[in-house]
Specification:
The chain is α+β, with helices and mostly antiparallel strands. The chain contains 6 helices and 6 strands; from the N terminus they run βααβαααββαββ.
Length: 175
Amino acid sequence: MSIPGKLVEGVFKRVLAADLTPELITKLASVGVDVSGPMEPAYPRTTWYLAIELTAKTLFPEDGLSVQLRRLGAHIISCLQSRGIIKGAWLSMARLMGPRRALKQAMDFTDRSPVKVTITERAKNEFSISVDDTEQPDFLAGLLEAAIAMLGGKAPEVSLEAEREGSSHFRATWR
């Protein structure tokens, strides 16, 4: 399954645009993500993974790869908010709902995602999250952890519990 060009464009041309140095833009083009022109309708997953890894290594060179990927995931969520891509009214409403209700409601939109996500409530402040992808689980954990924090969850923690049958299974908790 491929990654839609609109998603790649959104991440690299909108969310991360301010972080893309000329050197990183050249590196991204070398792996198949040319942000200087129109985006492709879809990208192979391997191209997406390479672009994410290159970006993580460039933005957070002092860390090891797993930390780089986790930090990039969190950075993307932070940029959605700080760069005004997620509007204040929506974010205020989501925070009022809290992580529990907002995550449950987000399940209504997972049919539009190139990565299938299943969220199962374990307790009031704990979810099991299954993602049909085993590549870059640290990136996914960083995205999830930062999203829970953005939604008002205190001290969120997301950990990989298992990988099986082409899926990553995470445990997400917060106070």
